[in-house]
Design a protein that fits this description.
Chain C: It is a multi-pass membrane protein. Chain C: Belongs to the binding-protein-dependent transport system permease family. Chain C: It is found in: Cell membrane. Chain C: Its main location: membrane. The complex is a heterotrimer of chains A (295), B (430) and C (288). Chain A is mostly helical. Chain A has a domain of 175 residues: Orthogonal Bundle (MetI-like fold), CATH 1.10.3720. In chain A, 65% of the residues lie in helices and 0% in strands. Chain A is globular. Chain B has 2 domains: 184 residues, D-Maltodextrin-Binding Protein, domain 2 (3-Layer(aba) Sandwich), CATH 3.40.190; 198 residues, Periplasmic binding protein-like II (D-Maltodextrin-Binding Protein, domain 2). About 4% of the residues of chain B have low confidence. Chain C has a single domain, classed as MetI-like fold (Orthogonal Bundle). Chain C is mostly helical and 288 residues long. In chain C, helix 3 crosses helix 6. The model of chain C has no long low-confidence stretch (mean pLDDT 85). Classes of the chains: A mainly alpha (295), B alpha/beta (430), C mainly alpha (288). Chains A and C meet through helix 2, helix 4, helix 5, helix 6 and helix 7 of A and helix 1, helix 3, helix 4, helix 5 and helix 6 of C.
């Protein structure tokens, strides 16, 4: 029988991971064609650039051999010492995590309002959220700078956290409202009939089912912030407050294009994030959709 | 429950990490120390050089602390514009004459004339560079203290090209002979971002025209001899140069050259360190652009790079002290030795390392030769940057692709320059 | 009393978001609108002043590049979003299944997202440059992918695809989690094959997610120029210039802020129009 679907009030966790443990008989060729071949092809496409990055990072400048030998770590040294990467990395993490937390919390709140209530100004709110995405950040730079200066946030990582949150919010709110709408309201209703307040019903019953949505929205917010270059360079003017994208852009310029350092810096920047992804992606399941497209 | 603990752990971690966040406000006085901020307009590989210089400066001046901020060169103009508009400029900044007019136009810089008159380096800075700086602004004041200048050179691989060409004919012959299919090329053209300046340098070197505008204010860019050169250059494309050239900005061009498959590349002294890293110091050589039709070596002046003090600085004395230190003989010599460029300090120019580096010796000799004519591009024109970038770079690509004739391209550029010159003369009272 | 408090709940929930947007976005966006009506060039202050609709007139009637870039932008957005959606959906379906190494596969599939823009363009430049790139191993040593007018569009599409597919993959994978497994069981019992189950169970549940994702991502692709800026500079000869890239070159590089603001406002109006149209046509949010 399929895993239990009806979430009874009071059960905070849907059964999870059960489907993963169940061994699947790899019986048919069709499965290989539908699954492994496209996946394999796509993985090759995805990984070639990463391979190139690693190759450039450990190969002496100017070499063109496809398999790097001998290996050199001089680029990593350049990046860590000359360019001062450790500080950039720390700053990127601080800004990323704080903006992730702020965005996710506010997105859940706003998303819930959009999804569960038909209030006056709802459509307007959504249109306004959309409109904020229509202007590229580079055109808003100087007015934003003036605002942050007035608030005294220039040269402070706080300006980046706020700016990134503000720019991530509209997308996050809209996406979150979509995820919340996917959870039928009957589930909360049942909980409230049982005596929970709306808030408790939400926390106990809806939030667990929102886990994939939270992961998705949180990842987007984090990644946008992690990769943001413009604000990180413009709102901050202290060497110890720059973030990784700024550090990476040091390597390519008019008088010097050090692809080795760029690649080394990129490896340092990407590896931790990929590892975190590897851990976090496990939570992109709630288990209720086990076997969505049956083989 | 696992999930809550995980979140709690993350929360604690971030608070802890944030706790060791940004430090104290720069520019503040702590126990009698003055702090000044210095923005490096080419942050990154030059950072260690400045850090060393700053260390020496602070040892000699214990009451001044210099806070170094490295700005990536590709974004430096945008950074300065934002800072000026937002009122958050540094005390000292690295500036070049290619955007000096822009900064002066926004009234952001402090003139250096008074300070220079009283300074120990007065009379020790190369006169051509000082003149170049003054020519960039309408009021002729010195807004930038020169530290270094650059020169266009053609880098070449010694094992492919044993002897550097001395005339343009030799150059074109060499480019042709060194091209062997499928992937060995004699030359590579910079067809992408930054193409126009290089093309101008080549054209004027070939044609020998010495003024950017003739007596009546018309641009000389479409002089028939310039057109002749451009036609020859466009003829090289795809035959003796790679097809990829048409979108070559500096990173792409140097990445391709770095693989050793291309014999010659036009750039400037500034990329010396990259060339050595990719090829090895003994395999790479440089020659100045060959002499052209006039028989005289003609060089288009590169932007002068130096240091400016900003009007908004609250510690101008300390700022000037730092600038003085940077252009004094030892520092200027050290800096230019590390980067391989031409020192602005005339005493530093005489240092032994200058003559020991062959590519630099070529450059300095060419510049100091009394027969050399120097053409100054009109950096003072506010539209010069946009004319030589957004307006004409795409057209140059069309020329390479055969969609536009060289004559038409140069006529278009000449017209824009002539108009800009006329407008500027009117706006600044001639 | 209680009902008043209850009615206030949605407003309270959205108030922090509204406050942030009001504080940080209204004034800047307003200033762009303001500057679109001005002549403002940072380097030629003597020409500054009120321009009325002059910028717009110039844009619509004299600027060939405006229309050309608009056309290319449409082509770019449609190609990217279409391909990203298809690949993202396919990937989401694949990694939703159980198989050995699923965790690893997922991390790898999503990993291009972890890579910063500067790095993405840097690596792909290396991949496409003939001397350092990947094509020499595929028997095509000479193809100058970015310099050739025929291949430059597919080349930039592929690069952006590499970077953009994970967005759809993650979003749709999360969306797939919300579909109760018993619906598939019921459909299977009714005799529906794989394709029909997909069409009648999966797609309807994903509809809202797909509409949102494509809309938001389209806006993002429209406005985001870092890749094109670095990879081709909008070239060769401006064939890969989108409208926002044109804005970046005009407003930021050439410092013609007034005209650049006018171009931005044009982009704003276009995006607004199409977003509303798209939402209306897709019958977003209606009960199924």
């Amino acid at each position: 029988m399929s895993t239990d679907v009806a979430i009874r009030p009071g059960r905070a966790h849907a059964p999870q991971n059960r489907s993963r443990r169940r061994p699947r008989p790899k019986r048919d060729r069709g499965r290989v064609l539908r699954l492994y071949v496209p996946l394999g092809l796509y993985l090759v496409f995805t990984l070639i650039p990463f391979y190139w990055m690693v190759v450039f990072a450990v190969r002496p400048s100017g070499s063109t051999t496809p398999v790097p030998w001998p290996i050199t770590f001089e680029h990593f040294e350049t990046v860590w010492n000359d360019i001062g990467y450790a500080v950039f990395f720390r700053n990127s993490v601080i800004v990323g995590v704080w903006s992730l937390l702020a965005t996710t919390v506010l997105a859940v709140m706003g998303g819930y309002a959009l999804s569960r209530f038909r209030f006056r100004g709802r459509s307007l709110f959504m249109v306004v959220l959309l409109c904020t995405q229509f202007i590229p950040g580079a055109m808003l730079l100087i007015p934003l700078f003036t605002i942050f200066k007035t608030l005294g946030l220039i040269n402070n990582l706080g300006s980046l956290i706020v700016a990134d949150t503000v720019f991530n919010l509209p997308l996050s709110v809209i996406l979150m409202s979509g995820f919340i709408s996917a959870v039928p309201f009957t589930v909360e209703e049942a909980a409230m009939v049982d005596g929970c307040t709306r808030l408790r019903a939400f926390l106990a019953v809806v939030l667990p089912q929102l886990r994939p949505g939270l992961i998705a929205v949180g990842s987007f917010a984090f990644i946008h912030t992690w990769n943001n270059f413009l604000f990180a360079l413009m709102f901050v003017s202290r060497q110890d407050s720059f973030t990784i994208p700024v550090g990476l852009s040091y390597t390519i310029g008019e008088y010097s294009a050090d692809f080795g350092a760029l690649a080394a810096g990129g490896v340092v920047a990407a590896v931790p994030v990929v590892c975190v992804f590897a851990v976090v992606q496990r939570y992109l399941v709630t288990g209720i959709s086990a076997g969505a497209v049956k083989g | 429950m696992k999930r809550t603990t995980a979140w709690a752990a993350i929360a604690v971690l971030t608070v802890a990490v944030a706790g060791c966040g940004s430090g104290s406000d720069p520019g503040s006085e702590e126990s009698g120390k003055t702090t000044i901020t210095f923005w490096d307009n080419n942050g990154g590989t030059r950072t260690p050089i400045y850090q060393e210089l700053i260390k020496r400066f602070e040892t000699a001046n214990p009451t001044i602390h210099v806070e170094y901020v490295g700005i990536p060169i590709a974004s430096v103009q945008q950074k300065y514009d934002t800072a000026i508009a937002g009122g958050d400029t540094p005390d000292v900044g690295g500036v070049t004459t290619s955007y000096l007019a822009n900064l002066v136009g926004q009234q952001a810089l402090e003139p250096a004339d008074d300070w220079l008159g009283k300074s120990a380096v007065n009379g020790k800075l190369a006169a051509p560079m000082l003149d170049s700086v003054r020519d960039t602004v309408p009021d002729g004041k010195l807004y930038l203290v020169p530290g270094t200048s650059n020169l266009d050179v053609v880098w070449y691989l010694k094992d492919k090209l044993p002897e550097a060409p001395k005339t343009w004919d030799e150059f074109f012959t060499d480019a042709h002979e060194l091209t062997k299919a499928p992937d060995q090329y004699g030359y590579t053209i910079r067809g992408g971002a930054g193409s126009i300046f290089q093309v101008l340098a080549e054209m004027y070197a070939y044609s020998g025209v010495t003024e950017f505008f003739d007596a009546s204010g018309k641009s000389t860019v479409n002089d028939p001899k310039n057109v002749e050169y451009l036609t020859k250059l466009a003829g090289l494309y795809k035959k003796d140069t790679p097809e990829a050239d048409v979108t070559n900005d500096f990173p792409k061009m140097v990445a391709a050259f770095g693989t050793g498959k291309i014999a010659m590349m036009h750039h400037n002294l500034g990329s010396y360190n990259d060339q050595v890293k990719a090829h090895g110091a003994d395999k790479i050589g440089a020659f100045a652009l060959p002499t052209g039709l006039s028989g005289k070596r003609t060089i288009v002046a590169n932007p002068v790079d130096g240091f400016a003090v900003f009007k908004g600085s609250e510690h101008k004395d300390a700022a000037w002290k730092f600038v003085e230190f940077l252009v004094s003989k030892e520092s200027n010599s050290y800096w230019n030795q590390q980067t391989g460029q031409i020192p602005a300090n005339t005493e530093a120019q005489g240092d032994s390392w200058v003559t020991a580096l062959p590519h630099l010796k070529t450059a300095v000799d060419a510049l100091n030769d009394p027969n050399t004519a120097v053409v100054s591009p009109p950096y003072y024109l506010p539209q010069f940057s946009s004319i030589t970038k957004a307006d004409t770079e795409p057209l140059f690509q069309k020329v390479l692709l055969g969609q536009m004739k060289p004559q038409e391209f140069l006529d278009t550029m000449a017209q824009k320059l002539t108009d800009a010159q006329a407008e500027w003369k009117k706006a600044t009272g001639g | 009393m209680a009902s008043l408090r209850r009615r206030a709940v949605p407003y309270l929930l959205i108030s922090p978001t509204v406050a942030l947007i009001a504080a940080f976005l209204v004034y800047p966006i307003g200033s762009v609108a303001y500057y679109s009506l001005q002549n403002r060039n940072l380097t030629r202050p003597w020409a500054d002043g009120f321009a009325g609709l002059e910028n717009f007139r110039r844009m619509l009637f004299e600027d060939e590049l405006f229309w050309q870039s608009l056309g290319f932008t449409a082509k770019w957005v449609v190609a990217e979003i279409g391909l990203q959606l298809l690949l993202g959906l396919a990937l989401a379906l694949i990694v939703n299944e159980s198989f050995i190494g699923r965790g690893l596969a997922r991390s790898l599939v999503f990993s291009p997202w972890a890579v910063s823009g500067v790095l993405t363009t840097g690596i792909w430049i290396l991949l496409y440059t003939p001397q350092t790139g990947v094509l020499r191993f595929l028997g095509q040593p000479e193809t100058a992918v970015l310099g050739n007018l025929d291949t430059v569009f597919p080349a930039v599409v592929v690069t952006e695809l590499w970077r953009g597919v994970p967005f759809f993959a993650i979003l749709l994978l999360a969306g797939l989690q919300g579909i109760p497994g018993e619906l598939y069981e019921a459909a299977a019992v009714d005799g529906a094959g794989r394709v029909r189950r997909f069409r009648h169970v999966t797609l309807p549940h994903l509809r809202d997610a797909i509409v949102l994702a494509t809309l938001l991502r389209s806006v993002w692709e429209f406005n985001n120029v870092d890749l094109l800026y670095t990879l081709t500079g909008g070239g060769p000869a401006q064939v890969t210039t989108t409208l926002p890239l044109y804005v970046a070159q005009r407003a930021i590089d050439s410092k013609d802020f007034g005209y650049g603001s006018a171009l931005t406002m044009a982009g704003f109006v276009i995006l607004l129009f199409f977003s509303l149209l798209y939402l209306r046509l897709s019958r977003f949010g209606e009960e199924r």
